[in-house]
């Protein structure tokens, strides 16, 4: 029983790390994948590189989309889309 008692703090650290670090990351990745699969024209998005824009064209077979930004139209892989941008866009950018 003493051997198990010595490993209890180490086991506790791994359990806490799983629930506070690993599990939220897995959930975030699952949510991003679901969001990317449900993209449609007109959605306001933010890329993983921090660009905000609006989806103007989608290609489901090749898994890419064209996003219109203030700088023009850019082609991105759907996996580069991070999240819905309308929640975090500035008022000036969201009017575009």
From TrEMBL:
**Is Transport among the key words of this record?**
yes
Q: Which domain of life is it from?
A: Bacteria
- Keyword Transmembrane helix tagged: yes
Keyword annotations: Cell membrane, Membrane, Protein transport, Translocation, Transmembrane, Transmembrane helix, Transport
Q: Which Pfam families match?
A: YajC
Localization annotation: Cell membrane
Give coiled-coil spans as residue ranges. Answer: none
Lipid bilayer topology: Single-pass membrane protein
Chief site of localization: membrane
InterPro entries reported for this sequence: Preprotein_translocase_YajC
Q: Which residues cross the membrane?
A: 6-24
Family from the record: Belongs to the YajC family.
What is the name of the protein in this document? Sec translocon accessory complex subunit YajC
Can you name the source organism? Croceivirga thetidis
Q: What taxonomic ancestry is recorded? A: Bacteria, Pseudomonadati, Bacteroidota, Flavobacteriia, Flavobacteriales
């Amino acid at each position: 029983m003493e051997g198990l008692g010595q490993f209890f703090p180490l086991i506790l650290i791994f359990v806490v790390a799983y629930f506070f670090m690993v599990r939220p990351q897995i959930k975030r990745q699952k949510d991003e994948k679901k969001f990317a699969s449900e993209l449609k024209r007109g959605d306001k998005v933010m890329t993983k590189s921090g660009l905000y824009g609006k989806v103007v064209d989608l290609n489901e077979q090749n898994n890419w989309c064209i996003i219109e930004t203030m700088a023009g139209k850019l082609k991105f892989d759907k996996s580069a889309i991070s999240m819905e941008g309308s929640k975090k866009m500035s008022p000036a950018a969201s009017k575009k």
